[in-house]
Amino acid sequence: MNSNQVKILDCTIRDGGLVNNWDFSVDFVRDTYEALNNAGVDYMEIGYKNSPKLLDADGCGPWRFCDDDFIREVIPEKKNTKLSAIVDIGRVDPSECAPRSESPFDMIRVACYLKDIDKGLDLINQFHNLGYETSLNIMAVSNSINSHLVEALEKIEHSVVDVLYVVDSFGSLFPKDIAYLVKLFKEHAPSKRLGIHTHNNLQMAFANTLEGIELGVEFLDTSVYGMGRGAGNCQTELVVGHLTASRYDMKPLLKLIDDRFVPLSKEVEWGYNTAYALTGLFNEHPRSAIAMRKTPEKDQFYPFFNKLTSVETHSDI
Amino acid sequence: MNSNQVKILDCTIRDGGLVNNWDFSVDFVRDTYEALNNAGVDYMEIGYKNSPKLLDADGCGPWRFCDDDFIREVIPEKKNTKLSAIVDIGRVDPSECAPRSESPFDMIRVACYLKDIDKGLDLINQFHNLGYETSLNIMAVSNSINSHLVEALEKIEHSVVDVLYVVDSFGSLFPKDIAYLVKLFKEHAPSKRLGIHTHNNLQMAFANTLEGIELGVEFLDTSVYGMGRGAGNCQTELVVGHLTASRYDMKPLLKLIDDRFVPLSKEVEWGYNTAYALTGLFNEHPRSAIAMRKTPEKDQFYPFFNKLTSVETHSDI
User: Fold this and answer.
1) How far apart, in Å, are the Cα atoms of B53 and each of A188, B56, B128?
2) In A67, A98, A210, A257, which residue has its Cα 20 to 30 A from A3's Cα atom?
3) Residue of B176, B272, B274 lying closest to A257 (CB–CB)
4) What is the pLDDT of residues A143-199, one digit of tens each?
5) Which domains does chain A have, with CATH numbers?
6) In angstroms, what is the C-alpha Rg of chain B?
7) How many angstroms away from the CA of A57 is the closest CA of chain B?
8) Beta strands in B186-244 (DSSP E)
9) B254 near B241, Cβ under 8 Å?
């Protein structure tokens, strides 16, 4: 694919917020926006757009809610890089949201599990009617039965959603799995533009993203220095450095990494390690690995493997 | 490919020795052999077989020379895992080497640049005549002119070498480059079994190895916990964990990582970081990144990028 056709959507603040409970300062986020804009990155996902009525703040930073007025204070003058926010089923009330023409946001992304597809498409419909670009990010497809996925894809094909994402929630997919899913998505939702969101549990985040590009996926989720839940995401700087489109420039991202993300990485942990590889290999949510990395036994991978494979852990099978 | 057909060649002590100047204790190496054998790994590369007459020890550990008697003391009873050593052009005298029947080694691997192909094949010939399995590892193919490579492949096709390696010395190759090279190697050296040796500068070591497997590459170089020069190699534990052949078992490797490699990784550095990604993106030897990681500016990637791209650095172009 011609790299002029792809769109990079940096989700550092949103997915990275899962690491530090969205505890980013306004200056940190502002610097990130400036660097992403100067690097030619197409979209910045600045957080979740949840309703404070439906989700308790519980010590989370403001990027968990992304109030329009607050975001306008953070980024008073939007430049080329568009803004997006993600919403969860049951945590947002679209009737409280301003139309796109009065909002700092350009795109609203709906994350949902396959079982919630109807609710997801209902939200998509409401945000579409408010004028937003929309995407649907179906989580945990690696744990779905194919027939359920196909049924959902056929509903999506007949919906108003703009972009449909292949999401590797558990970082358990390999390039050939991405190829399989992209083919399936194209077969059953042929009119939709595709996106890809990867996790780096098996060090496949960048490789899977490249496989997506080869197969015509247009929207690439990335994060600066890979910051994201658990093993993190595909590095924005690698994708920007690799793509040949002249609008992309890696240097502003390197400066941002030096000034902001290296220091942050000394305070909170994200990125590949063997514990995340194990949950990826077992196609499991990384929550057990995330918990284990916060204990004194954080580097004891053999007992962790035994725990993951013990009868007690899998007593529901 | 059926994973029963592949052979895993663990080169931790050899390539990892480039990180710590081969300063591994005998117990460390013995534990590594035991774990690799219990994990079902097919070969262990225990070091370089250089002649002390031709290469000054210069503070290096004994794994830089791999004297037969010494290796027999380390591993008095060889089990299923075979032993290999690598040799460099001009640093080994095959006439000093015992035949395979009197040596602990099963395989001798010759590493050479394309310009030294005749010298490389001459060494291969001598080790073959001593009864060893042999491989030829052509380094830095990403910096070779195709016509030179094709000429070399045709010589290799007519040689006695058993295994021919695709080596990504600079960690600059992507799966589609591996596919291109494997096709080229198969076209011009069709009778040879193929191997792959990757580096993780762009987090492609495992992805490139998987691409090799898909295309029929049989010998997979890996290292425990990825320990190898600069960004390191493809992790043995990931390949063992991923392949379905029943002889492979990840658990002994996880125990070894917990007991030996996690503590070592706190003392010496290897593995992916942004500096190695930059030399990979620029298709350069990682030596500048290795040097930079030993300075107080080890996390200053923006100035490092500027140095890599400055006129002064590239005054020879």
Assistant:
1) 68, 7, 22
2) A257
3) B274
4) 888 999 999 999 999 999 999 999 999 999 999 999 999 999 999 999 999 999 999
5) 7-267 (3.20.20.70), 274-309 (no CATH)
6) 19
7) 34
8) 193-197, 219-222
9) no
